[in-house]
Each structure stands twice: as structure tokens, then as C-alpha cells.
Amino acid sequence: MSQELFERPLFGGAITATLPKDQFMDVSEFRQVPDNQEVFVHSESEDSFIIEILEFIDAPDDQALRAHYEELSQDNGSTDTKIINEIQLDNIPGIDKRHAAYCLVGQQKAAKFNKDSNSDFSTLTLIMVLIRLYDVNTDLLITVNYPNLSSPLDQRLASVIQIVNSIRITDWSLFFTKVNGNKAWENLLSSEFRAASQDTTLAKKDAVLVLDFIKNRAKHTQISKKYSNVLSSDEQLKRTANLVGFQMPKTPAP
Question: Whole domain around residue 211: which residue ranges?
Fold first, then answer.
């Protein structure tokens, strides 16, 4: 991948990522792409870059990416698969909620990537990155396919990790839609309320406000009783009107 990069909006701008400039074409410009995917293909090769919003897999973090990899292997009709490397990545600066990122490098033998379906199975090299977004119950899956890997794998891996580290989530409401069929909005609200209830400083401030309200209300009641016993109802009405700038009409003499 070229080092000349530019920031590209994804999913309507809710996510951005820095991609190689002028090398990857947006597949949605010439064919339909599912709402939960952004798909790009290299302009001069068969390499592809896919980012998907998926429902959170109910599996331990260290096994979730393998589950996605095995599912892809089945979809590709692969006869032979192997995992070359697995690593946990550092947290991504542009994601400001709880998350974890994992990377897997693997190879699969699949016929679907051959131009001639009668030829031998070809080797597909994949780099997959899974970003687990805990607070919105979502798996963000990035898959880079290399049907005919030419450059060293280490260089490809470094380029993919560079793209992953550039990801920024700018609008979390993306995950509150039906794109990945989860209850993210409900979960987020619950977590926010739980966080507030555990903030002892905030709880103390609320307690002080409630105490002040009770004291002031008691004082108001005492003052009201004191003056209401002295003044007649007509006098109370007159003084109240004066406070807001009105003058009560004088009662004509009989």
C-alpha cells in the first residue's frame, strides 16, 4: 500500500479512516453493498478492503476473531485454512469508549478467487482486525484480502495496522440503528446511569442540593405563616399585586 494517505468518511461520516489515496475504489459506486459494510477494491489488483458492523459475538475476546475467520472460511468454500499469526493491538486513539482490538493473519485455499473455476485452488492471504465495542454491543470487523500476495506480508500487516490506528468514531448513534440488530441505545443509557450513581462526588452534590431545598422550603413556610396571620387577605392580595407592578383598584366609598 502506498504511504500517500487521505482521511475517508465511512458510513455517512460516522466513522473515518485514513486510506491509501487513489488506490482503492468504492465498490458502492458500481454495485450495491449491504448497509453494514464499506467495501473497497484496489484499482490495479484484486486486493480488497472491507469494514463491517456486526452483532457482538458471544465469545471470549481471544476466540471471537477466530470465529469470524472460520465463518469466512466456510463462506469462501475453503479446503485448507491456517492461522499464521494472532496479536492483540493497542487501543485505538480515535475510539473514546471501551474497546479492544485483535489482529489475525491467515491463509485459505479457495477456488472462488480463480478466474478459471476448473483450475487448482489458489491461496488467499487475509489480514483481519476485530474491534470489540463493548458499550454498544458491536463487533467492528476489518478484512483485507490478498488473492495474489506479491509484497512481503510484514509490510502489508504494518500498512493495515496503520489504517486501523487511524480509525475515528465521530457519531456513536450509528450503532443505535438496526444496522447490526443490537440494543446499543438501551445499554448505553443504562451504563451512563450506572456510572452517575457510582460517582460519590456527584451524589454528595445532589444531597447538598436536596438539603438546601428542604431548609429553604421550611423557612418559606415559617415566613408565610408569620405574615399571613398578621395581614388580611385583602392586604396580602394588594402587596402581591404591588410586587409585580400592579395597583389594586380602590373601592369607592359608599
Answer: 197-244
Give per-residue pLDDT as tens, 122-155: 788 999 999 999 999 999 999 998 887 777 888 8
Q: Are residues 224 and 148 in the same domain?
A: no
Classify the C-alpha dihedral 81-87-91-97 as positive or negative. Answer: positive
Domains held by the chain: number: 2
Three cell numbers written together for 31: 454495485
231 and 159 in a common domain: no
Report the residue count for the chain: 254
Query: What does the alpha-carbon distance between residue 121 and residue 117 come to, in Å, rounded to a whole number?
Result: 9
Closest CA to 130 of 239, 236, 53: 53
* DSSP codes joined into one string, 78-131: -SEEEEEEEEEEPPPTB--SSEEEEEEEEEEEEGGG-SSTTSPPEEEEEEEEEE
Q: 166 in the Ramachandran plot: left (φ > 0), alpha (ψ -120 to 50) or beta?
A: alpha
Handedness of CA 145, 182, 176, 56 (dihedral sign): negative
Q: Are 66 and 104 within 8 A, CB to CB?
A: yes
Same domain, 211 and 119: no
Amino acid residing at 105: V
Q: Tell me phi and psi for residue 157, to 5 degrees.
A: -60, -45
| Residues facing 52 on adjacent strands | 37, 141
What is the predicted pLDDT for the residue at 1? 42
Specify the 3-state DSSP secondary structure of 226.
helix
Q: Which residues of the chain have pLDDT under 50?
A: 1-2, 114, 116, 178-180, 244
Q: Give pTM, 2 decimals.
A: 0.66
**Whether residues 168 and 202 fall in one domain:** no
Query: On the CB side of 33, how many CA atoms lie within 13 Å of its CA?
Result: 17
Upper half-sphere CA count for residue 52 (Cβ side, 13 Å): 17
189 lies in a domain? no
